[in-house]
Amino acid sequence: MSRLPGVTPFPPELAARYRARGYWEDVPQGQFYSEVFASHGERLALVNGEERMSFAQMKARVDRLALHLLDLGVSQLDRWVVQLPNVPEFVYLYFALQRLGAIPIMALAGHRWNEINAFFELSGAKGYAVSEKLGDFDSRQLIEQIRSAHPALETVLVAGTAGGGAISMHDLLSRKPGASPSRLESIEIDPEEPCIFQLSGGTTGVPKLIPRTHNDYIYNTKAAAAVNDVHPDDCLLVVLPIAHNFPLACPGISGFFWKGARVVLSETARVDDVLPIIERERVTHLELVPALLIRYVNTPSIGDFDLCSVRVINTGGQKLQPEVKRRAEAIFPNARVQEVFGMAEGLLMFVRLDDPDEVRFDTVGRPVCADDEIILVDEEREPVKDGEVGELLVRGPYTLRGYYGVPEYNARTFTPDGFYMSGDLMRRHPSGNYIVQGRKKDLINRGGEKISAEEIENLILSHPVVLNVACVPMPDPVLGERMCAFVVPRPGRSLTLAELTAFLNEKGLARFKLPERLELVDDLPLSKFGKVAKNVLTSRLVEKMAGAN
Fold first, then answer.
1. Residues 199-247: pLDDT tens digits?
2. What whole-number distance in Å separates Cα of residue 508 and Cα of residue 113?
3. Domain that holds residue 136
4. Which of 10, 63, 226, 254 has most Cβ atoms within 10 angstroms of its Cβ?
């Protein structure tokens, strides 16, 4: 039972099973990674621009920062809102908090007052770590707002120049702490306590906090690394926000560090910046959302770079059409695209790298753990027949038992026996892998007929002119909602609604599912979680329709 109110524990009988089967090792993350860093010694661990550091150097900086945090009064289970971009300070602070048993809340650089304030209100955080600059945003005003609203905030750390009572992490790392190094070794942390609060996905509203325990998060990382072909001389390029579950622990930086492999950080995902890094650093692994991979493979200059080092391209967050996977594997001559279905709540499915092409290209993989319990259910919560579409319910050794501090929401989101009702619509492929059919909540209600937006998107993606697509509801006074397709066409190509609907008719799509409006756009907006921000598209559409009246 966690000492932190608001955390739903794993039942004792399941915890015993997970220990007996070796999933839970009862080692806190801070101790685990301290030993990992020590074991890899002088191997290259982290690259940031011209800065290169070994595992030994990284461990020294993590320990020094942890001791300074002890001097500042940081204790076990203290919550810290961490809002740092892809910079080394994120790495030092994340693992320093793990050493102390404090709990980082993984805010994103794009978050502002609405989200950051909500995280403080929900968690009672005592610490805040933020970059001096978040893109072109100066964080000083946000710091003052948070200080004023939350008197319990004790410490503000800044990556960059600090002022107004904040403390510079650079200054801490450059001077000796007062606490003795022996204090770190004397800290005893319960591995069933939360080690991190990840954020729920979704494109609207303030994310909910996902408590992940030391036991389950270490297993999460090891299980992901086991199916990701990671070796000690490999190199991961991190262009997605490092706080995301994917680049942090699936296998992400945690898995690569565990294997003794190196990580390259990039604060930009722009193709003109990323391609030279891949060539210079001999990157072997990329973790991307489909929108980024689509941009990369359609860049005319991509052929000017040596991309032979890339061996694995992981994509997740949105379905990636088979054509893009094939194109990527042609451009990256030694790479395989490995689709991932993952959630910060826990469950990970990976396509296996040795799956047949037709399985690799058409599915999102299968669970990484034999004790990931998967049930697909209908509207009555009854299991569907094999091959039929149903909502994904899951529980397992690294899937949460409840969001933090929201018991009423948990009662609606978890079954009485602890299965998480994900809202994802899936069907099981004959291979044993799974195919995502959409979101239960990503439905367009056309006169009572429920249409899965993702079902239509997948068909539209197969059109030769279409590069990317998002289908959203548009208000209708008679039917309630009709469907609008926002389409990104291939360079130099165009498409009309009549051409699109004729194509979908040829596919045998029911007429009521046809898009009734087409908007051609240069790109699709992304949410803070790297998914298409359909709420933004809907708002644009409503404004455009209002302006036309």
1. 986 444 567 999 999 999 999 999 999 999 999 999 999 999 999 999 9
2. 48
3. 29-36+52-189
4. 254
